[in-house]
Amino acid sequence: MNGLREYLALFLLLLFWLPFKAGAQHYHLPDGEKYEKIKFQLVNNLIIVPIEVNGIELSFILDSGVRRPILFNLSERDSISLNNVSEISIQGLGNGEPIKALVSKGNIFKIKDVVNESQQLYVVLDKEMNFSPRLGMPIHGIIGYDLFRDFVVDINYHAQSLKLHDPRYYKNKVTKRDQRLPISIIGNKSYVDGSVVMEDEREVPVKLLVDTGSGDALWLFRDLEKGLGVPEKNFHDYLGKGLNGHIFGRRTKITGIKIGRFELNDVKAAFPDMESYAAIVNLGNRNGSVGGEVLKRFDIVFNYSMNEIIMRKNGHFGEPFHYNMSGIDVQHNGVRYIAEKIKEARPATVGTTAYDFGNVQLIKEDVTRLSLVPEIVVSGIRAGSPADEAGLKEGDIIIAINGKKIHRYKLQEVVKLLNEKEGKRIQVLIERYNRDLLFSFVLENVLK
């Protein structure tokens, strides 16, 4: 199964249909407080927030495309007590059958000093629904609408912080750099109007789901009558994993996207196979989704109570959109031991070269140190890609890239090395069936 795809493109686009029941208690700030500021990690364009659930700290993705919090990937180390549990079936993206899950009511969620004493949540029991290996850090769940409902959510992507404002005290401070835009709240999710510029320079108006839980840039649904056809230069690819199976489609780029007065050019896009949406009865007039690789270029205030967002360009705005030019998907796969030669000091003996430190003499001696490091594997290869043509295979254990040991890199850095610089030669040392093999290829932008 392919894993990471261009900053985890759309792997986390989970548009769950979940039974929705009103009556859950809301989140609240301590008395007298007007907002709470929370630091987050931005990983592959996704907002990772620490949240305590019944006293246990877990990591959640802030996902404006999900209704209720969903837990998954709970191990023995993350043992947690849940209240009022029953079993249900849920349906989401993908071609598979509905899956079994648990629903739990009356749980205490705490984000710093923000508390909900009676949060409803869902637990997905499928062990394959595990985002941690592909993000390179533990991820336990996603949370969305309940926070956007109760607060004005001010996301500063550039500073990697968010503020949860009490709507009663929030004051709009719109400057010339900002733009206030109306949004539609439909099914507890927000939609914004914009337009896309296709390869023939036609500008097509679109309604897009605003999805902070997608690491990709833009998803568009085919609609030839409207002018949303797949550009000529494209390739078929695995787009990610939905709740009910794998999602495939065409990857491409479009001339641009316009939201309000802001315009981005040469934007990467994906056109999913519509079979993946079989579980969604009515898409209405929605034409796709805008995800984290576009949203991170702005600092955004979500004000559901006023049906608006306020957008401002930040330091990410001018960054180019990156494509998977190697064809390799990578992920963590547990840990492995490595042996490294190091220099170790020991007392000098007769006939050795020594270094004087006061009245103590030391010499340097080669010794071997065993270290436990993350194992990074090739989780997928795109057919016909440079890595595929070079001979790399799914399951290969990556040992080094361009001569540097793989454990010296974070997972995001590995992805960047493999995808960002067209024409760059990459040498990958891998282990396959206890043999070390060296492969070389050149990064190629197939959409150019």
Question: Count of helical segments?
Answer: 5
Helix/strand-derived category reads mainly beta
CATH class of the largest domain, named Mainly Beta
Q: Please outline the major beta sheet.
A: 13 strands, mixed
Q: How many strands in all?
A: 28
Mean pLDDT across all amino acids? 84
Strand content: over 45%
CATH superfamily grouping of the largest domain: Acid Proteases
CATH topology of the largest domain: Cathepsin D, subunit A, domain 1
What form results from the Cα inertia axes?
globular
- Alpha carbon gap, first and last residue: 27 Å
When the domains are counted, the total is 3
CATH architectural label of the largest domain: Beta Barrel
Could you estimate the helical fraction of the residues in percent?
under 10%
What's the Cα radius of gyration?
Answer: 24 Å
Low-confidence stretches: 1-23
Q: What does this protein look like?
A:
- By secondary structure, the protein is mostly beta strands.
- It has three domains: 35-165, Acid Proteases (Cathepsin D, subunit A, domain 1, Beta Barrel), CATH 2.40.70; 178-313, Beta Barrel (Cathepsin D, subunit A, domain 1), CATH 2.40.70; 328-339 and 374-442, PDZ domain (Pdz3 Domain, Roll).
- 6% of the residues lie in helices and 48% in strands.
- It contains five helices and 28 strands.
- The protein has helices spanning 132-135, 145-150, 292-295, 386-390, 411-419, and strands at residues 35-39, 41-43, 46-53, 56-62, 70-71, 85-90, 99-111, 114-124, 141-143, 152-156, 161-165, 178-186, 189-197, 203-210, 218-220, 235-242, 245-259, 262-272, 288-290, 298-303, 308-313, 328-347, 355-357, 360-381, 397-401, 404-405, 425-432, 435-442.
- Strands 1, 10, 11, 12, 13, 14, 15, 16, 17, 18, 19, 20 and 21 form a 13-stranded mixed beta sheet that branches. Strands 3-4-9-5-8-7 form a six-stranded mixed β-barrel.
- The two termini are 27 Å apart.
- Residues 1-23 have low confidence and may be disordered.
